[in-house]
Amino acid sequence: MIIRRIPSLDNRIRVTQHLSTGGEKAYTKSHQALKQDKDDLKDMLSELNSLIGMYKVKKLVSEIRDYITIQQQRKSMGLIAQPLVLHMIFKGNPGTGKTTVARILGKAFTSMGLLSKGHLIEVERADLVGEYIGHTALKTRELIRKSRGGILFIDEAYSLARGGEKDFGKEAIDALVKAMEDYKDDLVLILAGYRWEMEVFLSSNPGLRSRFPIHLEFPDYRIEELVEIAQLMTKKREYTLTPGAKDKVREILYDNADRGELSMGNARYVRNLIEKAIRKQAVRLARRTQVTRELLMALERQDIMEAMEK
Ligand SMILES: Nc1ncnc2c1ncn2[C@@H]1O[C@H](COP(=O)(O)OP(=O)(O)OP(=O)(O)O)[C@@H](O)[C@H]1O
Ligand SMILES: [Mg+2]
Question: Can you tell me which atom of ligand 1 is nearest the CA of 100?
Fold first, then answer.
């Protein structure tokens, strides 16, 4: 990316990006917009860093940042800037943070000047695949159009290959592959799904794998990580987990793990539990004549226990 001041545009800066093979585009951004980008990037990075675990994602983002800095410096010295293709495969169970990460990446890439809007459009098979010949291409193209400038995130992407050669899913895949090439400068495509299914899917579409240079695994969280996530979610909502409540969350997670249910929801399970406990706390406090700030914030063991009741 070259940043060059153009005096005739007074307060404006011309930003030229060179992102992927042959892809060069230009648009203008004001000083203010660039400063905003920098602030946004800072916010995004701190949001990303606040996530529990996710070491590979954090590393990837910092690598991309360094890469952009160096490519900029290379370009300014007349050297070839290497292409940057950001299409990704996310592999992991439900509730392991895939959507959360995609949303943050959209914003981070925008503030790095890699995407013009950074919004996230999350879809699944039914949103792409139509019911008659030509319908699928129409639906898929419309979603691609809406996603340009941001991220098109396809959940359970392997289901596109479900019906084999004759299925309309194949039409969707073809349209997506075309879009990945045509709009590689301002569209990131993320295919997400269970690890094993994604492997099978990529193996059955040999041309596809090589088009996705970034593969990220989202492993199931360990119990202690889930407890930390519970604490983070509570804090974000301006509540606190009393030590007794925190222990109860841990006990519940161990019980689930004993029953082999740990991966059935992961961080989403924890979120539902905390949100339900917050409602239980409200019921507990609503009839009190006097409440303190501390009471309004504290989630007690009892709230967690009641949240578990059907
Ligand atoms: N590492 C983490 N730290 C803090 N919160 C997290 C983390 N991972 C996930 N969460 C939270 O857990 C919830 C579920 O995450 P998310 O929706 O991103 O999962 P997902 O992998 O997209 O799930 P699905 O496959 O079911 O769509 C969200 O509220 C998210 O904020
Ligand atoms: Mg999701």
Answer: 18
